[in-house]
């Protein structure tokens, strides 16, 4: 039996997605490295800035912790904790402060019940299920021949949940960066010259989310091309 899920001419779409994602990742690493060399004139560490933003926003209850790795920074709404990576936490660079402020922006979204953030959290379990179940269902549908068309449709829909999650992620990340830049400016945590530099770091990071959405879209398009042709035949 021929399994087009694994290799056929439409694999070019997957390759294009991988190239786009790889290029975005390389760009964010390059941009972050560049502005990691630029030390903030205020002398604050990223951890200092993060705590100051949280406290000024009445989020004293949000714990600030460290986590191993590089650019592993994240805010966990369920645990009410914001974690800064080893590369970020004690750094006084413009890049690290921008990243820390971005994560604090997520905490502010949580405080404000920001709709897209709530929707993304709700999508996590169903997206995880979709990623796990999609391909077994698609393969089963292929074994059943014409009788498996309904299963194939369900498999594609489950797989498409990843694209939906990526699309919902975009406004969440863009808004967190917007909040971060505004707060850094309003609280004078960076100088006027440093604000555009931090913005460049966050804009570069945003490209990785755009690239992930494009890659997901191309993957879904590939499935439609494969199984659309199957129905015609």
From TrEMBL:
Keyword RNA-binding belongs to the record: no
Coiled-coil ranges per UniProt: none
InterPro entries for the chain: Zn_peptidase_2
Spans through the membrane: 6-28, 121-144, 150-172, 201-227
Name this polypeptide is given: Peptidase
One protein family per Pfam: Zn_peptidase_2
Record's keyword terms, sorted: Membrane, Transmembrane, Transmembrane helix
Domain of life: Bacteria
Annotated organism of origin: Alkalibacterium putridalgicola
């Amino acid at each position: 039996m021929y399994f087009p899920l694994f290799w056929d001419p439409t694999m070019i779409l997957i390759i294009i997605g991988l190239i786009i994602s790889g290029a975005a990742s390389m760009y964010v690493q390059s941009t972050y490295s560049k502005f990691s060399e630029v030390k903030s004139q205020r002398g604050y560490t990223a951890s200092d800035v993060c705590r100051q933003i949280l406290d000024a926003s009445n989020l004293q209850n949000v714990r600030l912790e460290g986590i191993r790795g590089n650019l592993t920074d994240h805010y966990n709404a369920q645990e009410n904790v914001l974690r800064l990576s080893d590369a970020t936490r004690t750094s006084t660079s413009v890049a690290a402060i921008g990243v820390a402020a971005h994560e604090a922006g997520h905490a502010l979204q949580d405080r404000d019940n920001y709709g897209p953030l709530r929707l993304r959290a709700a999508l996590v379990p169903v997206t995880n299920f979709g990623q796990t179940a999609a391909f077994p269902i698609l393969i089963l549908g292929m074994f059943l021949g014409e009788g498996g068309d309904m299963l194939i449709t369900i498999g594609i829909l489950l797989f498409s949940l990843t694209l939906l999650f990526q699309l919902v992620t975009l406004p969440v990340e863009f808004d967190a960066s917007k909040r971060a830049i505004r707060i850094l400016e309003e609280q004078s945590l960076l100088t006027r010259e440093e604000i555009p530099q931090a913005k460049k770091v966050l804009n570069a990071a945003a490209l990785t989310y755009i690239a992930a959405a494009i890659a997901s879209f191309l993957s879904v398009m590939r499935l439609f091309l494969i199984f659309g042709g199957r129905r015609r035949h």
